[in-house]
Amino acid sequence: DSRHVVQKFTAAGAFVTAWGSPGAGDGEFDHPNGVAVDADGHVYVADQSNHRVQEFTSDGTFVTSIGSYGSGNGQFTYPLGVAVDRDGNLYVTDSGNDRVQKFTSDGTFVTAWGSEGTGEGQFLGAHGVAVDADANVYVSDYLGDRVQQFTSTGTFVAAWGGTGTGDGQFDRPRGLAVDTYGDVYVAEYGHSRVQRFG
């Protein structure tokens, strides 16, 4: 959206509010991407080209900003996905650095994992991220055409997918979500479809 805004709707699809505008100041965005909401209703937005994550109240009031451009701990190069676990910890896919970073609810850096490549725990463009009720972390590997699962501290658990058009295969997976049953939903950019995994 060229307006660089976040919009909020009711569960029935009725518009509630919107906030944001183009720029690099507090509450401004340059290509907002992933969004997540914690148990207190705070909204976290991956502000992709400003290389940061911004936090807001549920009505769009700016709270704080996390990160800056770079490759150090707590820095980002094109963050794309964001997720929050039940304890309020924040997980951010740092796409340009091929890694995931974890922060506490107040934005303190905890750990990071990942590097460029095709091995376990490596990425070719970490994109979407989701966390289940047991704090398992799922990450879509955009150009690796797979989804990887990790513990909350970054230990590799499993991977699935592969390039192709069949069930369970991908062409540039992006967005991820996990439901209350632990099923994983993957939005697949290249094939314009959503796949569900149990």
Explain how this protein is built.
The chain is an all-beta fold. It is built from no helices and 17 strands. Strands 3-4-5-6 form a 4-stranded antiparallel beta sheet, with no helix packed on it. Strand 12 and strand 13 form a beta hairpin. The chain is globular, with a radius of gyration of 16 Å. The N and C termini lie far apart (33 Å). The mean pLDDT is 96.
Short description:
The protein has no helices and 17 strands. With 198 residues, it is an all-beta fold.
Count of strand segments: 17
Rg over CA atoms, rounded to whole Å, is: 16 Å
The averaged pLDDT comes out at: 96
Distance between the termini: 33 Å
Strand content: 35-45%
Main sheet: which strands, in order across? Answer: 3-4-5-6
Order of helices and strands: EEEEEEEEEEEEEEEEE
Derived from helix and strand composition plus strand pairing, the structural class reads: mainly beta
Largest sheet features: 4 strands, antiparallel
Inertia-based shape: globular
Binned, the helix content reads under 10%
Low-confidence stretches: none
Query: How many H/I helical runs?
Result: 0
Task: Please give a handful of descriptors for the protein shown.
198 residues, mainly beta, 45% strand
Sequence-ordered SSE layout with sheet pairings:
Blueprint: E1 6-9, E2 15-19, E3 32-37, E4 43-47, E5 52-56, E6 62-66, E7 79-84, E8 90-94, E9 99-103, E10 109-113, E11 126-131, E12 137-141, E13 146-150, E14 156-161, E15 173-178, E16 184-188, E17 193-197
Antiparallel strand pairs: 1-2, 3-4, 4-5, 5-6, 7-8, 8-9, 9-10, 11-12, 12-13, 13-14, 15-16, 16-17
